[in-house]
Amino acid sequence: MNANPSTGDPRVVIQASSADTLTLNVNGEVQEIRNQLGELKTLLHNLKVQNIQYADKIYNIEHIDEANFGIVTSNRVFNAVLTRELIELLRDRPKVTRFLGSISKEDKANWECNRTHLREALGLVEESLVWIIGWEVRRLFSIGNDREKGMEIKIGEYILHCFNLARLALQLTNSLLLSKLWDIKKTGRDLSIAHPSVRLFFHTARPLTLTELTAVFRALIEIFRDHDLEFPIQEMTKENLPAFLDPGSPFGEACARIGKLENFDQQNERYDLADCHSAEIALAAILRHFSFFTSYQLVSMKKVEYEEIRNTKARYIKDFSILEKKESKSLQRILKYDENASLTYALFFARERTVVNLFPFFLDFNTLTNEQDFQIYAYECREGGSGLRFLSLKSENTDAIYYRGVQAGQREIATEEQKNEEQKSVRLDLVIKQFEDAMNTLLDTDERFEAAGAAPSVNYNF
Amino acid sequence: MEKRYPFKFLDAYRKEDFAFFFGREEEIEALYRMVFQTKILVVYGTSGTGKTSLIQCGLASKFKSYDWLALYVRRGSNLIASLDKALCDASDGVFEFAERLEPDARDLPQKIEAVYRASFKPVYLIFDQFEELYVLGDAREQQQFVQTVQKILEVEQPVKIIISIREEYLGHLYTFERAVPGLMRKKLRVEPMHLDKVESVIRNVGRQAESNVSLQAGEEPEVAEAIFEKIRGKNSLTIELPYLQVFLDKLYLHLTGDETRRAGAVVNLTALQEMGDIGDVLRDFLDEQVIAIARALEELPNTVWKILSPFVTLDGTKEPLSEAELQDRRPDTSQVLLTAVLQALVKGRILRYTEHDERYEIAHDALAKQVAAKRSDEEIALLEVQRLIKSQVAMKAENREYFSEKQLGFMERYLSKFRPDAEEQAWIEQSRANMQAEKEERARRDREKLEKAAEERRLREKVAQAEVERSLRRKAEEARFEAEKQRSEADEQRSRAEQKTKQARQLTRLAVILSMLAVAAAFWAFWLKQKAETATAKAKINIEKSYQSDIQRLELEIEITNRNIASFREYEAGDDVILYENSKKDSLSRLQDSLEKRLQSIKK
Predict the structure, then answer these.
(1) Exposed end of chain A (fewer CB within 10 Å): N or C?
(2) Could you tell me which chain B residue has the CA closest to the CA of A148?
């Protein structure tokens, strides 16, 4: 797709747009046509013009289709479609209800075109989503909002983050399903999970494409359906499976569309504004189907300490952080004394009694390395035979975690720093070991990661 | 590709200069890692190590534009006010900055939210040259800032704080750390550059395709080392980066003479040998600038030095000033001249103008030291006066102390040489008034003391006189009392005599009565005696009669008793004498004895 404007072409500008008509300015001459893509394409074809301008935006007519035509002619800004879609999902929330109620009658139909309304809505959306998704939505909002950035850079960054967001949404859902399957299989239930897509998930040496992640997602929900398994979250039911599995469903089409955009040959093709709109529409459709992202929270279990004093009942001291604000609640760091044990280093996808541990597919790297604040990593692919590559959601950098084969037995330590380093190594090894266990359990294999460097171990019997 | 001048002179490197920013790769990585591990961190190092460039260029370049909204905050006239202004400016019109007498951080969370919502970027609040809070701020401002940071760390939006401070002021953060315990958990020391790094900087800049300065091919290591040697001090293994920048700029001008800095230059050993060392370069540079400005404005260089002087504190650190503040410090200099010198100093890169707070400041501490060294005793005294006034006025009114008479005396000579602000002037006036009031009070007290002494003297005399009078009165009283007493005694004696006479008269009358009564009694006694003798005789007869009857009765009883005894004696002959009877017999015997004794007595 070549979007380079050819300076010798006649200049076609959309001057005004209504439900029925488009007012065009063709080289200074005003023309009116019906507001239909076919008619516009014919006109441009006859004029032998590739690009059309609306306000300060230039579109390649080849990239305009029925799906994004409405946005092109409505002159909507970045994020408008996505925000409206997500606000619709949240319309029962008190804050959102208040916001929608505050919009005047005249603005109700297109409130997302009003900058003030859009900005408020963006804030509501961002704070309502589970952190992994909310953080990436924030980036999309930031790029779309940036008035200083050049259009070309903006288009590139925006579309890239549409892909990232769709990828994270699929990865998060896949991780929820895989975690549940892993737990079920650990109970001894005989399940056949070794689907090629699932195998690819565990063995890929590069980040999976959106198309591949969609295939993993479909394979996993088919496993749940075929074995009549209970889904990890209540929002996923047998009734809504066709929407996910049918390639012709809005979800299926959105996945296909965004997958296709991602697979552009970026050496020879360039994205343009219409592609951005297409990506945004597809992303909005995908997120609409994952509406549960708005009602769950991410909880990082920073530390669990065991405490048992003579002649008293043992208890656990749990130090955990809730990563996002929901409605009136603020970000929270909690210290809880509890008689029930808990999974350490866990990253929980949680709502009330529904709790799914995402570790090791998603993890809080700062918890493992004994640092403050939080830094969520998402599994991307294998790193050789002894490591895994993760994407840091905060920095967008990738980081490899290698298996060191550190013996978690007894050892002599000289300093506090050495102890911390030892603990870090043991914990980082746990990431690989957990991944290995999940993989072997789910795929019925016995594959082991090689240690990148072994540490000595001493063990006393007391 | 268009070539650019790669050196920044005394300005810090910014994100857009990243192509020329070398030698700090490790520090950038370390800082970038730390940013994700804490909400607040400290970057410290000695002056001239490039802390500001490390953050503004090195760290900033690690972030994509959508992940980095940096608000650089310098103290200005008050750190809270400067932060407030930076937030308002970044809030996309949601908040308007309003200058307040008392900076207020109460609505800070709302402002941070507005800034975040304006861009949806994580906010990085970068407090550069943080030592200014301790050099120029007072305890109240410092305390307020600590509270502000505590508030910022609680906001829900993604906000991080980076504090850049000169190493020698690190100890001032002690109180801050007590309030914000995580403050020093993540800190990065920016080390001065050693030869290896300086070499790498010079050679990399020379190799950059964008750079219009390159090193002579084949001489690169020697040129880099020679530059390092020119800049480092005699006993130092490191260099100050601003010196490197000034030196390279001078070297460039030496090579090209192009003030526009567009011409290409190839640095070689020969050109380097023609240059002096950094001390000369810096001194010369400042002197040259000052002389050139003075000449251009047809003024004496001393005038320019005097205008520069207020921009440096007594401690030799920078003090940013607005044009109005400078005018107040230099009231003897015309506004026109002041503006012209300021413009020239900015153009010569001696001063830097910051638009956000409309202040000028010395471009670098290295120059500040040179300016401080140029000061006369008179200038130093003037600054001491200014500091003295500021130190008092900086405190809350209730905590201030009026200037003493000695201090006011010291100030008086210099007050015409600068213009204290309204508050300072008011405090000086109040101090003067206080001094005057104290003087008057002293005089009043002296007067009162004298009056009091005189009064006391008068009182003492009065008391003495009164004492004499009292003594005389007492004596008179005593005499009167004595006379009274004597009179009373005489009266008493007379009374007693009269009473005795009266008693004697009564006794005489009584004696007559008694003698008459004695005669009557004698007669009555005789009559009574006769009567008593008669009665005695009768009684004797009656007694004898009674005795006779008693004797008869007793004799009868004895006889009965004897009879009883006799009858018992008869029993005694028998064998069965019972105990009772024996006792009865004994009692009869005893009765007989008693009766006989009684009989004998009566008979007697």
Answers:
(1) C
(2) B65
